[in-house]
């Protein structure tokens, strides 16, 4: 398979590993057509050629179109032309054409579902993220994702969050320390837990979860500069902002809904983390239509 260098560069510039995405695409296609696409092979002449368009069925933000393009290249190699592809992160309206593909008709239909699975899922994440970004507009708060991602799909899902205007939290258990309630219990308190991580990994960022306001002053005095406020009501969060007085960034987390987003943001917190962006997002309604003639 030959992939256009420009597409590989695009994936790299987006913070994705092209080799890993290629591996995933190959596995997805092997899962979908282990013995070939029997319906297309039976109903479509081998020499038939066609053009199909990716069209939106709703308003939102698209993401994953580059990955979808990669699917077509994997199936059809050089014998495919992809045009009119809008950039990932573009806001679209229902009925917009976001990509056009031309090539052997059998191959277009073999690639269809896998390409749509990527683009629809990632566009759903981008669209959901953009809704949170809009809800927080005019406040200092920004929406964060979490590690609540599909196994092996994290890089793509977090990429889609960025396409929607959100901010990525840590990518793994290794790139940043996150002291949560169970760590606090095991270590004997928030301050001992924070100091233990700081001693073991002095160069890593460390965020600590607090569930009660009385945990916050000692943590700030110990030098913690990233704090997660877990399941606090807006009044308590506002008091945490007052106590912190800019000494640490504050992340609100736990059962937050988009209907409450602005109320939470107006407490003065810096971030609002939303696991639902990746773990229970609705897919974006995107379809592939084969053109007649």
Explained architecture:
- By secondary structure, this protein is an alpha/beta fold.
- It has two domains: 133 residues, Aldehyde Oxidoreductase, domain 3; 146 residues, Alpha-Beta Barrel (TIM Barrel).
- The chain is 43% helix and 18% strand.
- The strands form three sheets. A six-stranded parallel β-sheet has the order 6-11-10-9-8-7.
Summarize the structure.
With 293 residues, this protein is α/β, with parallel strands linked by helices. It contains twelve helices and twelve strands.
Topology, element by element:
Layout: H1 5-13, H2 18-32, H3 38-43, E1 49-56, E2 60-61, H4 65-76, E3 81-83, E4 91-92, E5 97-104, H5 105-135, E6 142-144, H6 154-163, E7 177-179, H7 181-187, H8 190-200, E8 206-210, H9 216-221, E9 226-230, H10 234-244, E10 249-253, H11 261-265, E11 271-273, H12 276-279, E12 286-290
Parallel strand pairs: 6-11, 7-8, 8-9, 9-10, 10-11
Antiparallel strand pairs: 1-5, 1-12, 2-4, 3-5
Helix pairs in contact: 2-4, 4-5, 5-6, 7-8
Mean pLDDT equals 96
CATH superfamily of the largest domain: Aldolase class I
Strand line-up of the largest beta sheet: 6-11-10-9-8-7
What CATH architecture label of the largest domain applies?
Alpha-Beta Barrel
How big a fraction of the residues is strand? 15-25%
Radius of gyration: 23 Å
> How many domains?
2
Helix content: 40-55%
Tally of DSSP β-strands: 12
Order of helices and strands: HHHEEHEEEHEHEHHEHEHEHEHE
Q: What's the total helix number?
A: 12
CATH topology of the largest domain: TIM Barrel
Defining traits:
293 residues, TIM Barrel, 2 domains, alpha/beta, Aldehyde Oxidoreductase, domain 3, six-stranded parallel beta sheet
């Amino acid at each position: 398979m030959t992939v256009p260098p420009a597409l590989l560069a695009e994936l790299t510039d987006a913070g994705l590993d092209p080799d890993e995405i290629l591996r995933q695409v190959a596995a997805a296609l092997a899962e979908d057509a282990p013995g070939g696409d029997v319906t297309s092979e039976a109903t479509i002449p081998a020499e038939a050629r066609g053009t199909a368009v990716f069209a939106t069925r709703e308003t939102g933000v698209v993401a994953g179109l580059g990955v979808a393009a990669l699917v077509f290249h994997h199936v059809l190699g050089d014998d495919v032309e992809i045009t009119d592809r809008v950039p990932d992160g573009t806001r679209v309206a229902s009925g917009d054409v976001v990509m056009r593909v031309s090539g052997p008709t059998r191959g277009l239909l073999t690639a269809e579902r896998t390409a749509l699975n990527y683009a629809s899922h990632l566009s759903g994440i981008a669209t959901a993220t953009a809704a949170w970004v809009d809800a927080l507009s005019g406040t200092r708060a920004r929406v964060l994702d979490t590690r609540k991602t599909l196994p092996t799909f994290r890089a793509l899902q977090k990429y889609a969050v960025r396409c929607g205007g959100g901010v990525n939290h840590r990518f793994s258990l290794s790139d940043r320390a996150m002291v949560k309630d169970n760590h606090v219990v095991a270590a004997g308190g928030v301050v001992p837990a924070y100091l233990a991580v700081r001693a073991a990994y002095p160069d890593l960022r460390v965020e600590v979860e607090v569930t009660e306001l009385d945990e916050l002053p000692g943590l700030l005095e110990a030098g913690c500069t990233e704090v997660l406020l877990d399941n606090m009501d807006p009044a308590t969060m506002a008091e945490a902002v007052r106590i912190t007085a800019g000494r640490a960034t504050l992340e609100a987390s736990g059962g937050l809904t988009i209907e409450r987003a602005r109320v939470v943001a107006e407490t003065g917190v810096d971030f609002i983390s939303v696991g639902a962006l990746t773990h229970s997002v609705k897919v974006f309604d995107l379809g592939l239509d084969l053109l007649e003639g």
